[in-house]
# Entry
Amino acid sequence: MNDMLIAIVLSGFLAALAAPALYHFFPRWAGRLCPLLPLALFACLLTVAGQVSAGTPLIFSLPWIPSLGISFSLYLDGLGLLFALLVTGIGFLVFLYTPAYMGNDVRLGRLTGWLFAFMAAMLGTTLAGNLITMFVFWELTGICSYMLIGFDHEQEEARRAALQALLVTGIGGLALLAGFILLGNISGTMELAELLGRGDIVRAHPLYLPALMLVLAGAFTKSAQFPFHFWLPSAMAAPTPVSAYLHSATMVKLGIYLLARFSPVLGDTEAWVYLVVMTGGITMLTGGVTALLHNDLKQILAWSTVSALGTLTLLLGLGTPAATTAAMVFLLVHALYKSSLFLAAGAVDHGTGTRDITRLGDLARIMPWVAAGAGLAALSMAGLPPLAGFIAKELLYEANLQSPLAPLAVTVVAVLSNSLAVAAAVLAAYIPFFSKNSVHDLHPHHVEIGLWLPVLLPALLGLLIGLFPGQVGAWLVTPAVTVISTGASPVQLALWHGFNPVLLLSMATLGTGLVIAALRGPLLRKLSEAGNIRMGVAERLYGIFFSRLQGFASKLTLTIQGGLLRNYLMIVVGVTVCLVGFTFLTGSGELPASLPRPDGGIHEWLTAGVILAGAVMAMVTRSRLAAVAAIGTVGYGVALIYILFGAPDLAMTQFCIETLSIILFVLVLHRLPQFALLSNRATRVRDLVVALSIGGLMTLLVLMTVSQPLSSHISTWFLEQSLPAGHGRNVVNVILVDFRALDTLGEITVLAVAALGVYGLLKKRHKEEG
Amino acid sequence: MQSLILSTTIRLLMPLLLMFSVFLLLRGHNEPGGGFVGGLVAAAAFALYSLAHGAEAGRKMLRIEPRLLVAAGLMTALVSGMLPFITGQPFLTSLWSKLPMPIIGHAGSPLLFDAGVYLVVAGMSLLIIFSLMEE
# Structure
């Protein structure tokens, strides 16, 4: 049973690999087959829903890095179930919709593959039972999001938006990793199941605040909370199914998931309530207001998503059982109506070629089913009975009125942003589908079933939930809420709560919203007369920071990598001499009292003489060929020394290297200009100092090493183990290919990369010249 | 730059040098030698041939792109390290056959690894030499 969890997570990754091939070979069937996987996963999750809702989480665990307490574990409880059902359910709609939306685009297979990978990463994050497992999947969702936003990679706008999203959420992800490590150190466990019971230890720890801030940074960046909200509207450069799936229904809710998941551990403190509620409140209003400033359907929906994410954050910040219930219900309801509206926006774009609401209208005649779905979804968004949105709004107001922190202010903010949402709903569904604007110049055409069914399904589901709230409450919401706030009483969802202050607030919201929607047009005209609507401060700051960073990087590169080999050499040698020399002067190492006398015969002296003569020759000669030959002499002399002192392997290699380098020299030599003496006296003296300092340093090092007794056990161990353990008598080679094979693997990888670098440089020159 | 002496000599030396390089590789585990020096000798053989007959002829003699040699070598080394996964042992654990073989003694996965090193070194040297020659 628990093995099912790993199958649920991994199947998506396998499908991601298979999807492009499937679309390539069976283009006709692929579009019909792909939605079956999320549907099957959805059904799988439903089969265990009963057990999980009853309070028995499913746990799967594989050891990964046991020494660090890291395991690959999965954990399915009420909260995870709610999210996993959302991911697979909305996923089913999106996979149904994508082939119809993309048409005959050859990139459909690639898009589907990335969507599968994203779905799997989402499932992994929400089902993760270990902090590190969760982090890995969390980052995978970010990478998938990067690839999907930048799907139209030939457009600069898409590339920029993708990079922006990746950088903002990536920085948050790093903060999250640090937060997770802190949490692990504080509580002594990386396992979620154990961590959830240790909230008191964490909250009492002096490092609680840093851990909280880091985790919140991760959650806020992912869920586009103020001031990191700007990446989400930019991410609308992605194809519409991607926006519907990642950037409204699922991925941006991961931050909410994180808040919900860790509120039993981190929540319920003053710092938590203030930080989370304030951020949520500001985001709610910013998103709500900005949504109305746009005319692009997708931008309106994106900004209203930012607002909705703010609402969810605010509710989780309040942390009362009522607020948690409201958050979970709103999460579900928002995912349903927002995905429906996004998919409807895509259908409109597909049918008319524009998403500008000033040019759209009266589309209900041409695409009636899309209009029906979008209309229902918008009613839910506006919070009208008997749709699910109404229940969510009632719960929201109830929670706000009972807020432990400034109930009046919180309620006002909520009413205001919900009114803005009503206005946004009017813009997103009423204007394009039911207003009397003429659209004949756009030549709108009918849309096929693949485009309207995914719009209609979630909208109808929203209606069903509104009509039968009790069952949904018991099956889905209660199990999630009990995980988040322990001691919450079972949730009784109902459509009708009687005449009470909450109902009054709902009616006030609707009225205000309609007024705002009616006033928006004239107001916007005045605003645009007064000047262009400016980009947000946060986004401008990001832009400035980004261009400055790039400017700084290129300046730094120009300074350090000037392109003069002698400068590089001087820096490398200088740093080495300074650092090692410093250690010499301050360290405990002593020079030997008496120099060890060479005990060799005349042949050793001769070899040394040859090497010295070669070096001097290389320095003073005025012929390049002679210099190369002289350096070669030095190399062969060194090889001779290896032979004399019993290192045939080294000697052989040295001989080969010398031979090959002479060949290389000869190859490039005739391409160089005539030999000329360009250096003056001062530079020659400087070069002499550099050369002498590194030479002297190396001599000192060697003298010191040989004067101290070698106390290394490792070399004797190698000598002893070479034959019995390594099956080889050549110890050097056994070390290279067996004992230290990992090092060798690294070295040959470096060699390969270096070769590619040389190849690239030479080929590039070749092309430029030719 | 045609030299009759060099081109005649290298024609005779080439097979010898290549055989010697493989010999170095195979006996490396017990006697001086190994994949690194073997690869260098092989590269030297092709480099000398190219000096005598030009880079074009050298490439023809090699038949495979040096880049592919580098890639194949890295893959060989990696695969030899991953073989022990089959029996559930850690990465790069050496596997040995029980049968003694001539020249190399026991055959084992380190020899495969060394062959990977041989290919990478030879490929890398030739990649640079050919690129420079064609400059």
Notes: The longest helix of chain B spans residues 109-133. Chain B touches chain A through 53 residues (CB under 8 Å).
